[in-house]
Amino acid sequence: MVTNGHNELRKSKILVVDDVAVNVQLLTTYLTSVGYNVIAARDGQEALEKVGSCNPDLVLLDVMMPKFNGFEVCERIKSDELTRIIPVIMVTALSGRDQIVKGLSLGADGYLTKPARPSALVGAVRAVLE
Predict the structure, then answer these.
(1) For residues 28-39, b (16+ Cβ closer than 10 Å) or e, as one string?
(2) Do residues 53 and 72 lie in contact, with contact meaning Cβ atoms separated by under 8 Å?
(3) CATH label of the domain that carries residue 58
(4) What does the alpha-carbon distance between residue 129 and residue 19 come to, in Å, rounded to a whole number?
């Protein structure tokens, strides 16, 4: 959680990016139940637009998506001076060592495999945000 100048807690804003609606709903349910604000995007292009317009505190990013895959989105977020400080956690069914190394080498701050247990997801989010 981030505090503003008036010492009030502000809920962290998390952008969930996945082209499968049920995955977005699950992640949204997990995250809102512990107090986070969630914004959703259904593909890489929409994700990049929302990163620019919504200024999220964290991006949870699927890898296999239309338009731009998660690796491309992560690389674009991390190569832009205005957005590179936004943490990115890859959340994907791709669990091979090569995919994990690729995601982390592109600047991802974490990597979770689907299906992510709620406790693992919330723990990873908290660790990155705090």
Answers:
(1) bebbeeeebebb
(2) no
(3) 3.40.50.2300
(4) 24
